[in-house]
Specification:
By secondary structure, the protein is α+β, with helices and mostly antiparallel strands. It has one domain. It is built from 2 helices and 10 strands; from the N terminus they run H-E-E-E-E-E-E-E-E-E-E-H. The strands form 2 sheets. Strands 2, 3, 4, 5, 7, 8, 9 and 10 form an 8-stranded mixed β-sheet that branches. The termini are far apart.
């Protein structure tokens, strides 16, 4: 009976470790001096920034979900994370650089090894990724932003090295553009009150 109980506990532990493992992926777009840069677009960007590589006022986040899809509507499935130490991943490879200073690392980032929960030997090679880039403190607050298309790849199902890089491909070539300002709900409310006041004023006249 005791042997059966111990075997059952060990079996459950094995299932738990398989189901709730962690994968590792190297979150970077820099692989060599010829790696593509992330840049401003050629239009709809701040004055003087067209086509320049983004500097250290920008940060990158990695989005992922376990499984594969090419459906852009499923971007809402993505979980976005920072770099391997959970701090923002900024451009410049550790240097404080201005936009366009590609020689110092503008346009490139290296966020180290990122952990992805729920990875095991059966699903480690089937993960959908996306990368988003923005200025300011968060994606929601950014005024210049860009996001890659979806791409698929694998993660390391164990902690052994080397940790695999993100798949090198066209996702690295995306650009950032200005984000249209969306009025706060309070602004809509004030506009509505103003319109109502004008109508009342006109009727009185």
């Amino acid at each position: 009976m005791k042997k059966l109980l111990v075997a059952s506990i060990l079996g459950l532990s094995a299932v738990a470790s398989t189901s709730y493992g962690q994968g590792l992926i190297h979150f970077a777009n820099y692989f060599s001096s010829s790696s593509p840069l992330i840049t401003y677009a050629s239009a709809n960007v701040p004055a003087g920034k067209a086509n320049l590589a983004v500097g250290s006022s920008f940060q990158a986040q990695l989005g992922y979900f376990i499984g594969s899809t090419a459906d852009p509507l499923q971007l809402t499935w993505l979980t976005f994370v920072n770099g391997g130490n959970s701090s923002p991943v900024v451009f410049g490879l550790g240097n404080t650089v201005n936009d366009g200073d590609a020689g110092l690392g503008a346009g490139w980032f290296d966020g180290g090894s990122v952990s992805i929960p729920g990875i095991n030997a059966g699903n480690a090679g089937n993960i959908t990724f996306a990368v988003r880039v923005f200025n300011g403190g968060s994606w929601a607050a950014g005024t210049v932003e860009g996001q890659s298309s979806l791409f698929t790849g694998g993660a390391q199902a164990t902690s052994s090295s080397p940790v695999p890089d993100l798949p090198q491909g066209g996702w690295q070539n995306f650009t950032v553009t200005n984000v249209a300002a969306v009025p706060e709900p309070s602004m809509f409310a004030l506009a509505g009150l103003g319109s109502a006041a004008l109508l009342i004023f006109r009727r009185r006249k």
